[in-house]
């Protein structure tokens, strides 16, 4: 392995080396990527359940929409939504075109491995621009894929495409800055646009590109020349600014669903503590060496007089790290509870790996400039929240290291001191090795350390991922489609069904949420959701929903679609008239008559069926189309009272009055009502007494609030058979 020093050598490509070795390097890089992707797929293909909700559900639904409609427009529950992150759903949509969800889910995870690991290709090409050595770019390619954040390829997340898209954008920016031309400028803009479609946060690249050009031009004292070289780029930016202004004037936002991230103070008071902490966590999980050595190299090359790849990339490294760190730290402080969620920042790792390779190719390793990244790490480690988690945390995969740190170093204080000392020791080792050992030996040793440490850390992250049950409370390798995919098996994957979420598990808000997540996630046919505002929903506040209402005189619904409906058997809010198919796992499938019409609706009860203190509940029964006059209908109500209580309950209608005591054991009561041919009739339910029960599960906020209730109406069933003619009493 030969290392060529000198400033001039840093701007050379590896092609001359390849010719001397008589080995085509580009095909080797592709083969390396395929090997890395295959190794990664061995892990990701084991995943058989979701882990990050509702992100994975969103991107699955977007991909299913593309597969169904053959349109790239973002649609969820058949409605167009404001989503910019459309590249990942577009990439995985082909695997969801045919077959059951599990089939596409498995294929998507295999595809994830190759897509995310493809970041090795642009990382390799970027490193080739910075070092004349033929082997260092391969080292960069390997470590780019063996970082612990590669575990995110195990999930249906935008990071899968965002990672390679970001590195490709950096490669395009580097080319546009180091060797300006109209074509390279346009390619850089295109690469930035693709990166934004991969992940909205990469709008920051649109800032990084001109800042790096300006900084490089100012240092090189060639500002006027740079302006002339990038006229096309300036024109594109002016057009983009006008388009953004037009969107703002028309009430739209280029941030899409992330519009809220632009709210609030973008520079919170604790930014100076949080930003170094974010960088320190990425540096730690990235093996420390790349940040210390690569960061020192970048700092020492910012003011180089000669123009070339080195100075341009030094500015690209520094500006990228600063801009992304401030962006992510600002987001975490405002919306992330102040935690370090380096899931949004790990994209700087390949930049640091390339700077690390450039440092190893320099005439001498950085020395005094090591103080800058060392100071950042010292400050960052001292303020970083070192919090252990039971399982791999998708927001901070680096946290897999915290358990060992906290245990070995006897607490947070000891862990912070140990991390600062570790960074200092690494710096001293680098300086001492550079003084005492041949450059080749130093480079080989440092690369070997990185190639051992990062795969070991990533392997441990995967071990933690599989060792602990997933977010659903079950092993990630356990196929849940067998349990929850029954809707597709009942009505086929090409049919459509509207789910009506309702609490089916008492006194457990999150279990109910998970139940309906699973029902939608594992069934292609479930493509709509009906949920009333401020009532229970499987996806509160995020996915489009239909608010079903009924005409109080006729029972006709404001919704009428050619779709099945999947509704909890215990739902006491309304019931649609239609053809009943089956009930499984407490959910019934009905094909509603057209137009949609309710058999009955209720009012006066809590949304989950409990009676309100001192207030009657009412069940309104609508006439059947087959009626020829007033007809007797029979309702059967299942009820229970809170534990230890007995509630006197009366039922009254125009056909009579019934009374019984309702205790903690479920009881049933049949109630008759005379329904006129052209108007509904009501049954009143009155309960004596009330006592504390669990919170209203309509929302997480109401679930946490205590309430009083009388009895729980567990189900309401209307007899399908029309009764005898009747004369309603007054």
Provide structural commentary.
This protein has 730 residues and is of the alpha+beta class. It contains 24 helices and 18 strands. Among the domains are: 13-44 and 118-467, no CATH class; 604-730, Sandwich (Jelly Rolls). The longest helix has 29 residues, at 439-467. Helix content is 45%, strand content 13%. A hairpin with a 2-residue loop joins strand 1 and strand 2. The chain is elongated and about 105 Å long. Strands 6-9-10-15-12-13 form a 6-stranded antiparallel beta sheet, with no helix packed on it. Strands 4-3-5-8-7 form a 5-stranded mixed beta sheet.
Short key terms for the protein model shown above:
730 residues; disordered N terminus; 13% strand; alpha+beta; five-stranded mixed β-sheet; Jelly Rolls; six-stranded antiparallel β-sheet
List strands and helices in order, with pairings:
Elements: H1 15-21, H2 25-44, H3 55-69, E1 75-76, E2 79-80, H4 87-92, H5 101-117, H6 120-128, H7 136-145, H8 159-178, H9 182-198, H10 204-219, H11 223-229, H12 231-249, H13 271-285, H14 289-301, H15 309-335, H16 349-361, H17 371-383, H18 402-408, H19 412-436, H20 439-467, H21 481-484, H22 486-491, E3 497-500, H23 509-521, E4 526-529, E5 564-568, E6 574-576, E7 578-584, E8 587-592, E9 598-603, E10 617-621, E11 631-640, E12 647-653, E13 656-662, E14 667-675, E15 681-687, E16 691-693, H24 700-703, E17 707-709, E18 712-718
Parallel strand pairs: 3-4, 3-5
Antiparallel strand pairs: 1-2, 5-8, 6-9, 7-8, 9-10, 10-15, 11-14, 11-18, 12-13, 12-15, 16-17
